[in-house]
Amino acid sequence: MKLSTRTRYGLRAIIELAENGREAPLQIKAIARSQEISVKYLEQLMTILRSAGFVRSIRGSKGGYMLARSPNQIKLSDVFDCLEGHVTTVECVEDTKFCERAEDCVARQVWAQVQKAIKDVLQSITLQDLVDRAKDKKMSNYQI
Amino acid sequence: MKLSTRTRYGLRAIIELAENGREAPLQIKAIARSQEISVKYLEQLMTILRSAGFVRSIRGSKGGYMLARSPNQIKLSDVFDCLEGHVTTVECVEDTKFCERAEDCVARQVWAQVQKAIKDVLQSITLQDLVDRAKDKKMSNYQI
DNA sequence: TGTATAATCTACCAACATAGTAGGAATTGT
DNA sequence: ACAATTCCTACTATGTTGGTAGATTATACA
């Protein structure tokens, strides 16, 4: 149960966009450099995030990407679903019809518990929360 | 973030072994039939569970598999680790040295939270718990 | 002692997902 | 016009998953 780089890089990228605010766009090149991700690969990830409506792009010179919505309206569970492709451990957890034993299956119960635990965490965090956390970290580093 | 069949089938198999008790062995063929898993594939899974010390095998005629330990001493987190290969969302969560930004990384914090949530659930459940749950289900089906 | 029944071991394989790379076209600011 | 960007299409290497196949070894039982 490892996360794909798609999800890991994607999250880091959108966090950086959130930190950058919604005044000026941030270029793929800049994000790729600071996050040490291949420009070409990051392009794909941004396309995913864009079609899901989390970020918007500005083409051409001085273009780049910005959050499409306010960071406190973007929950990590949404971003995760879009990148990783839905938080589902097993299909039968979502859809009982998937397996005829589903109703009585204790294994299914376990995966349902796990899935809920993951979802609960991710639903409780917004991008704004992460921006705030990052700020706190920086402040404590400078020992203010 | 989907579970592999290795983990799903493996868990179902070991649950069935737990339900079967530790008096008589259960054959791969029998488990494969009731769980609708390929015999040959299940062989592999049992090998994994055996080398991890969860089950022991009896070779030859009338042989089969049994739990190697008492079902209340086997936590799902252990079984999961053995089948899925450790509950780790990202390497840096376990080992800070993995990424130099790890200390300050808010993304890492998120994955650490998620990972802990998963672990907490799996550590809180033993095979005995599942045997009990299954019994309860059967009883309620018969409307006792 | 022979035979059936099991686990065990070794090897192979097809299909799919992942994690990219490459090159060019379209768009926009200066 | 030109440079800086995003956008689009296509390709690819590698690893993982989910198996299959066949021979070998161990054991119970008659």
Low-confidence stretches of chain A: none
Q: Could you tell me the radius of gyration of chain A in angstroms?
A: 18 Å
Distance between the termini of chain A: 39 Å
Highest-level CATH class of the domain at 1-69 in chain A:
Mainly Alpha
Enumerate the strands of the largest sheet of chain A in spatial order, edge to edge or round the barrel: 1-2
CATH fold-level assignment of the domain at 1-69 in chain A? Arc Repressor Mutant, subunit A
Question: Any idea what the CATH superfamily of the domain at 1-69 in chain A is called?
Answer: Winged helix-like DNA-binding domain superfamily/Winged helix DNA-binding domain
Alpha-beta content class of chain A: mainly alpha
Helix content of chain A: 55-70%
The CATH architecture category of the domain at 1-69 in chain A equals Orthogonal Bundle
Indicate the proportion of strand residues of chain A: 5-15%
Instruction: Give the rounded overall mean pLDDT of chain A.
Output: 93
The major pleated sheet of chain A works out as: 2 strands, antiparallel
Beta-strand segment tally of chain A = 2
3D shape of chain A: elongated
Quaternary structure classification: homodimer
What sequence of helices (H) and strands (E) makes up the elements of chain A? HHHEEHHHH
- Biggest interface between protein chains, with counts per chain? A-B, 34 and 34 residues
Number of helices of chain A: 7
